[in-house]
């Protein structure tokens, strides 16, 4: 089983076309839904955080956010962006915004793309993701010991460019990963307060599977 233990220290249910990382003039970029998203090194975003020169957006599920998040970050899940309770949509469009997730930047890049499509002009994503921020001892709220699992599968190659989602519906935690040209995918799952018996929902455009985490992580998922 693909699993390790991760220690976090204190302090549109939809799909999206997500391309690989590209070399950009000012660092790395990725392309999501036609939007070019800037990926910033975690140390640079930490400098912005310390200088209070950026606002931070947690693109994970609300359950993960409530367990632990970057100090002063707001919750704005990539799975339901821009809703009536989303605080980000009230920010000025020229606000410097840093999105992050834990996978390490699939969900955050999706959230950033939605923001750019809505007129926000200074949007960035933490390249290495939330857990690199934690590993470096940068400020977070909350403390949790979270297991890391990999769930790999195959779906119809026609699903290439869409997303595979893994969700704990009971606690509102989710992760996602892009589906490759051959239909393969690997989702990195770091959920709080779950066990190998926790039933998760895995969905691709072609199928949905509900099964215990241990079974999903123990082999190649190819359908129900």
The CATH topology annotation of the largest domain reads as: Oxidized Rhodanese, domain 1
How many domains, in number, for the residues? 2
Q: Radius of gyration, rounded?
A: 17 Å
Strand residue percentage: 35-45%
Q: Which ranges are low-confidence, i.e. pLDDT below 50, for 5 or more consecutive residues?
A: 1-26
Order of helices and strands: EEEEHEHEEEHEHEEEEEEEH
Protein name: Rhodanese-like domain-containing protein
Organism: Haloarchaeobius litoreus
Pfam family, one: Rhodanese
Domain Rhodanese: 50-142
Can you give a write-up of this model?
This protein has 224 residues and is an alpha/beta fold. It has 2 domains: 7-141, Rhodanese-like domain (Oxidized Rhodanese, domain 1), CATH 3.40.250.10; 144-216. Helices cover 17% and strands 37% of the residues. The protein has helices at 42-51, 62-67, 106-117, 130-135, 213-216; strands spanning 3-8, 18-24, 27-32, 35-40, 55-58, 69-70, 74-75, 97-100, 123-126, 140-141, 144-154, 163-168, 173-178, 184-190, 199-203, 208-212. The strands form 4 sheets. Strands 2-3-4-9-8-5-7 form a 7-stranded mixed sheet. The protein has a 4-stranded antiparallel sheet with strand order 13-12-15-16. The longest helix has 12 residues, at 106-117. It is globular. The two termini are 19 Å apart.
Topology:
Blueprint: E1 3-8, E2 18-24, E3 27-32, E4 35-40, H1 42-51, E5 55-58, H2 62-67, E6 69-70, E7 74-75, E8 97-100, H3 106-117, E9 123-126, H4 130-135, E10 140-141, E11 144-154, E12 163-168, E13 173-178, E14 184-190, E15 199-203, E16 208-212, H5 213-216
């Amino acid at each position: 089983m693909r699993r390790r233990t991760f220690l976090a220290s204190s302090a549109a249910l939809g799909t999206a076309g997500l391309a690989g990382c590209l070399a950009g003039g000012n660092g790395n970029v990725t392309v999501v839904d036609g939007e070019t998203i800037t990926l910033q090194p975690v140390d640079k975003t930490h400098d912005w955080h310390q200088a209070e020169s950026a606002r931070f957006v947690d693109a994970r599920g609300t359950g993960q956010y409530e367990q632990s998040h970057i100090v002063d970050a707001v919750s704005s899940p990539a799975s339901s962006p821009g809703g009536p309770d989303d605080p980000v949509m009230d920010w000025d469009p020229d606000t410097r915004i840093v999105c992050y997730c834990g996978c390490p930047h699939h969900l955050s890049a999706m959230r950033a793309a939605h923001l750019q499509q809505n007129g926000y002009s200074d949007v960035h994503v933490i390249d290495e993701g939330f857990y690199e921020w934690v590993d470096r001892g940068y400020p977070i709220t909350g403390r949790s010991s979270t297991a890391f699992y990999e769930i790999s599968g195959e779906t119809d190659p026609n699903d290439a460019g869409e997303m595979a989602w893994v969700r704990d519906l009971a606690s509102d935690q989710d992760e996602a990963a892009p589906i490759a040209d051959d239909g393969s995918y690997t989702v990195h799952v770091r959920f709080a307060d779950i066990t190998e018996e926790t039933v998760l929902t895995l969905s691709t455009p072609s199928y949905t599977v509900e099964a215990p985490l241990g079974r999903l992580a123990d082999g190649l998922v190819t359908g129900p």
